[in-house]
Structure formats: C-alpha cells, structure tokens
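hey can u check if this looks right to u? its 118 residues, i copy pasted from the old doc so theres a chance i mangled smth
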Amino acid sequence: QVQLVESGGGLVQAGGSLRLSCATSGRTFGTYRMGWFRQYPGKDREFVAGMSWSGGSTLYSDSVKGRFTISRDNAKNMVFLQMNSLKPEDTAVYYCSAAIRSSMYNTWGQGTQVTVSS
C-alpha cells in the first residue's frame, strides 16, 4: 500500500509562489504516474498536473500551463508542484495522487489548502 502526504500549502498574495510537496512511502511498485489535483468547495476534483513514474513526460491543465511545474526527487521519494504567478482562482484544496497498477489515479493524499488573496 502506498501512502501520500502533502505539505506546503498556505496563504499567499496574488502573483506569489508556493511549492507543494508530496512524500510517498510504502509499496510503490507498479506506479504508472503521479499527479496533482485540486478541489473547489462543492465541486469535483480537477486535474492540475501529472507526470509519468519515470518522469519522462508531463501534462498540465490549460489553466496552470506555464505557471505550475511538476517534478520529483527519486532519492527522497518526493513529488513537487511549484506554483508561480498564483491567482485567486487557484485557491483550492490540492491533492497528491498516484495511479498504481491502473491507468486511473486511485491513491490520494489528505490534501493541503492553498489560499491566494487578491
């Protein structure tokens, strides 16, 4: 079983930056990809960014492309989301996720709140 723990959320002014971290532990064999999602109150989670387990390919939603960067540190078993030029509409709970032995994201962290003030 894989555990995901996010950190790094907080309050930032519009135009600022935050870096979210996701610590992974447990049985990561068979992980196909890692990703970040976000959820607005009363809404479904939406995809933000993802990368293959090898790190060879990345994908971003149109709303964050050019501002957010997903990366990983294999030695530390960490996945990151660097968020620059933040906007108030980026305010949400952000979740780290993994697709394990599946093409679908099926493992989730507990989430971390990001609040961007105008």
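The mean pLDDT is 93.
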